[in-house]
UniProtKB/TrEMBL annotation:
Superkingdom per UniProt: Eukaryota
Feature: compositional bias, Acidic residues: 439-462
Residue ranges constituting the DUF6729 domain according to the UniProt record: 1-167
Stated name of the protein: DUF6729 domain-containing protein
Region (Disordered): 437-499
Composition bias type Polar residues, residue spans: 486-499
Length: 499
């Protein structure tokens, strides 16, 4: 009751009533049922009337609520739909749309809570009624008022509708948030999975969703297009360049793309972002590898995983300095335990503590050439003679992709890693690094990609998540390990896709 309780000033929104104040004319006769966590509650309001046009409206109308200040506005407890209302605390639960947190799941939980609460109330009522029956035997118990029936929680679809109302009310804030996102290293990719979710009239109106993300995993821009090389890309690029310019932000240094990295296409990335003179464009290595992997005859071929591992090794190498430091720390660790063992680094330790860099265009091209020659021959067939590759397709693909070996090299002078945390292990300082920008999820293309390839990528992602190396196997040295370890964690940063 903002008018009576806070003496809030509301103005009539009708044409011809500019500046006309609304006055209270009693209580609104309808109450709203609000769905809360374990039970419903009812919400009433006051009725307001314009002194000039005499139009009346309840105080929970959006046109009236927007006159309130932010502090008073957040006191409003629910999001109203046409008939019902949902408590804001439940709407907030829908904001985190992660796996498992769906409207259906929320509806089931609410249903469970509400039904349990109804049963408990019924038990309390029946117990109280039993006591009365015992005391006043002259009055028959059957004359007691019947319990109201259980009212089910509305459907998951309704919860989703209310969530959309909530998003709609925060649209300006959300837009401002997206428009205030910038970055130094960007990644532009086209995806299909969002488009597949379009339903109703919007279905089949778009073929691609094109996203631009930054090194923090935030999305700068997202658009739906009918084709990957759509004219709309120009508008998107112009909008992005204008955003950076009007905010006075420094231009991005590096852009990863999944197509049009070089060549003569009119939507080539360098042409799209023509105002950013010093922007370096690189092809996403993941896509480069996927193109070659698409020539595999079968995902389940026993040599497929080995080939992909070797392909990755033809492109990347470990940073010598990082590897040397890791070897030094591990050697000290072994010595401190009085053991004489050779220093062997596990892939988990390498992934956790060492950075990777590209080998250079010429070396990568030669190594891939060599690798493909080997796998096209007898070495590329399994025991029954089934070849790993569709040789003709592979030759064509490699001829097309050969020129992109230069496009996948790490640019000089731009660091692709940033320090997320540091760790002293056996008196050697390590940094936990985060890798290249990731704009969310990897896309799926028409061409199937072998499953093993995806598994390999996943392994790398998991490994990056480890901040602390595993403690030494001998548990009696735990104290020494703890005393020699100083862990300084930086603010949480989003997990990036490792190269
Ligand atoms: Zn009026
Ligand atoms: Zn290229």
């Amino acid at each position: 009751m903002p008018y009576r309780m806070w003496n809030a000033r509301f103005l009539c929104s009708q044409p011809g009533c500019e500046g006309q104040r609304l006055n209270s004319c009693g209580l609104y006769r309808t109450v709203r049922r609000v769905i809360d966590r374990v039970d419903d509650y009812y919400m009433g309001t006051e009725y307001l009337e314009c002194g000039k046009c005499h139009k009346k409206s309840p105080a929970w109308n959006q046109a009236i609520l927007k006159h309130l200040g932010p502090a008073q506005r957040i006191e409003f407890p629910a999001v109203l739909s046409y008939k019902l209302a949902l408590d804001r605390s439940i709407v907030r639960e829908l904001r985190d749309r992660t796996l498992g947190n769906s409207p259906t799941m929320l509806q089931r939980k609410l249903q469970e809570h509400h039904y349990t609460n109804y049963l408990e109330k019924t038990i309390r009522y029946q117990c109280a009624l039993g006591k009365f029956a015992a005391q006043f035997v002259s009055r028959p118990v059957s004359a007691a008022k019947a319990l109201p029936p259980y009212r089910p929680v509305p459907t998951a679809r309704w919860l989703l509708d209310v969530y959309v109302y909530d998003v709609n009310s925060r649209l300006d804030v959300l837009k401002a948030k997206v428009m205030s996102t910038f970055g130094t290293i960007l990644k532009m990719g086209s995806y299909k999975h969002v488009v597949k979710k379009l339903a109703g009239e919007a279905a089949v109106t778009a073929a691609w969703s094109i996203n631009v993300g930054n090194e923090h995993g935030q999305v700068l821009m997202s658009m739906l297009t009918a084709s990957e090389a759509s004219e709309g890309l120009w508008n998107m690029a112009d909008g992005l360049m204008k955003r950076f310019e009007s905010a006075g932000m420094p231009e991005p240094k590096l852009l990863y793309v999944n197509q049009d990295c070089c060549g003569k296409s009119h939507t080539e990335a360098r042409n799209l972002f023509r105002k950013w003179k010093y922007l370096v464009v690189r092809l996403d290595i993941w896509h480069f590898m996927r193109r070659l992997a698409s020539c595999v005859s079968s995902e389940s071929h026993p040599l497929c995983a080995t080939f992909l591992r070797k392909l990755s090794a033809a492109i990347f190498q470990w940073d010598e300095g990082d590897v040397k430091r890791l070897q030094e720390a591990k050697a000290k660790e072994i010595q401190s335990r009085g053991l004489r063992l050779p220093v062997e680094l596990t892939s988990k330790e390498l992934n956790t503590h060492c950075r990777r860099k590209t080998r250079g265009a010429a070396e990568t091209e030669a190594l891939i050439d060599e690798l493909l020659t080997i796998y096209k021959g007898d070495a590329g067939s399994e025991s029954l003679g089934v070849p790993l590759f569709n040789a003709h397709k592979l030759e064509e693909m490699w001829e097309q992709q050969r020129s992109h070996c230069a496009c996948i090299q790490n640019p000089s002078g731009i660091s692709l890693y940033k320090i997320a945390s540091s760790l002293v292990w056996s008196a050697v300082l390590f940094y936990q690094h985060l890798g290249r920008p990731d704009d969310g999820e990897e896309e799926e293309e028409e061409e199937a990609v072998p499953e093993v390839f995806e598994e390999e990528e996943l392994e790398v992602e998991e490994a990056v998540d480890h901040t602390i190396p595993p403690p030494p196997a001998a548990s009696d040295d735990d104290d020494d390990y703890a005393s020699s370890s100083t862990i300084i964690r930086s603010s949480p940063t989003q997990l990036m896709e490792a190269p």
